[in-house]
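Async update (no meeting this week)

Hi team, since we skipped the sync, here's where things stand on the single-chain job. The sequence we agreed to prioritize is pasted below, unchanged from the tracker. I ran it this morning and attached the output directly underneath so nobody has to dig for it. Comments welcome in thread, and please keep replies under the output.
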Amino acid sequence: VTAGLTVGRAGSPGGGGSAAAQPVAGHGGVKVAAGQEPPTRDRLGELLPMRRLGRTDEWVTAFCFGGSHLIHEGQSDREHQELLEAAIEEGVRFFDTAQQYGRGKSERVMGKHLTPKYRDSIYVMTKTQATEATRARRDMDECRKRLNVDVIDLMQMHHIESARNVDQRIDNGVVDVLLEAREQGKIRHLGFTGHDTPSAHLRMLERLEQMGVEFDTCQMPVNVVDPGYESFVERVLPVLVERDYGVLAMKTLVFGALTGRDHGWRRRDRIAPNVVPEVITLAEALGFAWSLPVASLVSGTPRVDWLRENTQVLRDHQQFDEAKRLELIDKVAEFAGPRVEFYKTEV
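Output:
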């Protein structure tokens, strides 16, 4: 399946500017008329390439600033501000965070340094890991307060771990609360995330279909070693594309493991190989994801130089064909599995 996937409507790369492209009022998403190209600039400057966010019919930057790194110990408030300002300067208009990141700290940082100045130009998503309706309903209001916004562009059901976990959350009313919040205008779009097992994502899609509803986005691991073990790319991506979901790629460098960096989270002292750059380049690792039907690549970058390096790769990116993708998969095949993809459930 990986080899046969091509970038289609759900993940079309951006091109030249067009007078037909119009920002969504008060938000960073952009509406693009059929047959037209997304804009290359906005009031803040030059934009990164943009892609269509699935069924929402809005376009977002193909690089999304991941907010999980805004909670690192040792980073000052000024450093947080510099990171966010650098992202804006680099043309990023899509920002990710979650209630669970530092118990709201990441949201508060964005609510202080990002949304007051840039709300009209950015698309903001956050997440709830609530497992029952009361907590989910509280999250809807607390997240908006911390982010300093009236409306959240995208709220995602965070970190679904298994089919059983999906059933628990849905049976306890979490999806009902999300649908209610959308009706009330507290949030605009809905999605779900997870990295443990593709079976959780497939169960989520099955349950939504049984309820007669669809979400708008799905965030999951998309990387060059994924096809070799419990693959989200092989098993989930084709279903999402068929249903016109906005696919959000995460763990594209396997939480830094492909670069040999060990950030500690769930690592259990395992040693990560230097796949990048000793086996493949950074451009190849990130380009693999961008050459699939993904709307955006979510990357947590705790340093400004890493952020600029990643966004430059996007500017230079040319779509990889099937042969190139298969070549990269073969090069890193020995690294597939829980030894490197430590976040996946072992089977």
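Quick observations from my side:
Residues 133-147 form the longest helix (15 residues).
The longest strand covers residues 187-193.
Reply here if anything looks off.
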